[in-house]
């Protein structure tokens, strides 16, 4: 294995090499973008444990909630308004605090809007003349100006959902994809597969698991036609 170039390794082993290089030099600031990509479960568990004990600055991006919960002590949220907001705690604590913050923001926004509407209506109705009501209208107008100067609560903004529509392919007779006595191996290497037989139907939900370098990606490439047996 040590005699191979990095480009000849599987995606999982290339990720292991990149992580090993980054961790070996012990940087003061470690930046990781999706570090669990391509790693098998054993490697993910090891990396999670190692980073949870990291004694320097760690800044990472990940879509694995379990990984974030077990590694991170703070969370930075990049909002839909393109602002960064910092929260204490791991991912679960971030979700809880963010929900409470948005609920309080919605209540404050609603209260401010109701107060402003009421005062504006009063000013429009009694804002002229010298009567007692007119003086109260002027007072409310000053309160309005003070609220605006102090800064109003922004309207809560929901995250925009993404919707996908896929055309119905109709019924396809099984098997949709079939392997019959399929064998494959890379040049100058031991065969990865010999006489493989299996089929995939429309109702199949298959998880392909195994250690890094076992040949999972190769099998998918064979299934998609990117590689030929």
Automatic annotation (TrEMBL):
Molecular-function GO terms, alphabetical: ATP binding; ATP hydrolysis activity
Domain (ABC-transporter extension) ranges: 80-163
ABC transporter domain location: 4-37, 194-229
Cited Pfam families: ABC_tran, ABC_tran_Xtn
Keywords assigned: ATP-binding, Nucleotide-binding, Repeat
InterPro entries per record: ABC_tran_Xtn, ABC_transporter-like_ATP-bd, ABCF, P-loop_NTPase
Protein name according to UniProt: ABC transporter domain-containing protein
Native species: Attheya septentrionalis
Lineage of the organism: Eukaryota, Sar, Stramenopiles, Ochrophyta, Bacillariophyta
């Amino acid at each position: 294995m040590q005699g191979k170039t990095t480009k000849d390794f599987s995606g999982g082993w290339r990720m292991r090499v990149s992580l090993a290089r980054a961790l070996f030099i012990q940087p003061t600031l470690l930046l990781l973008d999706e570090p669990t990509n391509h790693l098998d479960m054993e490697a993910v568990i090891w990396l999670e444990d190692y980073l949870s004990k990291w004694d320097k600055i760690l800044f990472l991006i990940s879509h694995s909630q379990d990984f974030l919960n077990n590694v991170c002590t703070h969370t930075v949220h990049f909002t839909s308004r393109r602002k960064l907001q910092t929260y204490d705690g791991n991912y679960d604590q971030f979700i809880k605090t963010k929900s409470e913050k948005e609920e309080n923001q919605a209540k404050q926004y609603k209260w401010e809007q109701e107060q402003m509407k009421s005062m504006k209506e009063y000013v429009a109705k009694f804002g002229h003349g010298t009567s007692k009501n007119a003086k109260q209208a002027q007072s409310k107008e000053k309160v309005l100006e003070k609220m605006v100067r102090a800064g109003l609560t922004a309207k809560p903004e929901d995250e925009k959902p993404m919707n996908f529509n896929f055309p119905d392919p109709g019924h396809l007779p099984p098997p949709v994809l079939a392997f019959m006595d399929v064998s494959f191996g890379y040049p100058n290497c031991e065969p990865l597969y010999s006489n493989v037989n299996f089929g995939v139907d429309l109702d199949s939900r298959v998880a392909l698991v195994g250690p890094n370098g076992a040949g999972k990606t190769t099998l998918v490439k064979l299934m998609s036609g990117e590689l030929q047996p």
